[in-house]
Specification:
Length: 218
């Protein structure tokens, strides 16, 4: 890869990371104005991680498996969100983003467009996915809709009641589904398979997230 290829990869990767984090913050009603500096830095740093995983180590199929724990650590240490809630936020946002991207890939396939990593078509799919995430985040913020049970504080004791244990199980299952995304896609499975798995995971996860919100503030 030449310099322009590297810069292109980093730019579009950072754009996607920023979109994913902004959407995740919006759905859990975190105030964005106080975080923009850290959001931009985190997006750039995560794009470097993606470059290392995908281009240098050539671990394309295992990208989400490696990335998600790193993002959770970022949320925990950089944004000072308790690790349990950081895991919930990241997996929830990641599943949604995966679903959106899988849906876009289905449309591209139907149009006969082949996605090749680090090519114009791939950049187009990345930009479209990020744009949808930004749009939904904007709509969530404008409508003042979202979940409020995630504490904006580092030290919070998580009670291990039945609901939180179920949420932990769903975080783990969501992580597994996300980890399978690249593996299934690059093994030749149709994006519809990924879309179906993601939809099931997101549906069950959202049910428990809504239940948590109702339990806390209902």
């Amino acid at each position: 890869m030449d310099v322009l290829d590297v810069l292109g990869f980093l730019f579009f990767s950072a754009l996607e990371w920023l979109a994913l984090i902004v959407f995740t913050f919006a759905i859990f009603k975190f105030q964005l104005p106080g975080y923009w500096g850290r959001l931009l830095l985190a997006s750039f740093m995560l794009s470097l991680v993606s470059y290392m995983i995908f281009m240098e180590l050539e671990l394309v199929m295992y990208g989400p498996l490696i990335q998600i724990p790193i993002v959770i650590l970022y949320f925990w240490q950089n944004f000072r969100i308790p690790v349990f809630y950081a895991g919930l936020m990241v997996v929830n946002g990641y599943v949604f983003y995966t679903l959106t991207q899988a849906a876009i890939l289905i449309v591209f396939q139907a149009l006969g467009i082949t996605i090749i990593p680090n090519e114009a078509e791939a950049f187009g799919a990345q930009t479209l996915t990020a744009g949808i995430a930004f749009l939904i985040a904007w709509l969530l913020i404008r409508s003042n809709w979202g979940f409020t049970f995630v504490p904006d504080a580092e030290r919070v004791k998580v009670p291990w009641n039945r609901l939180n244990v179920r949420l932990l199980v769903m975080i783990i299952l969501g992580y597994i589904v996300n980890s399978l995304y690249n593996f299934l896609y690059f093994m030749g499975f149709r994006p519809f398979v990924v879309l179906s798995l993601g939809a099931i995971a997101l549906g069950i996860l959202q049910y428990h997230v809504f239940k948590k919100e109702y339990h806390e503030f209902g």
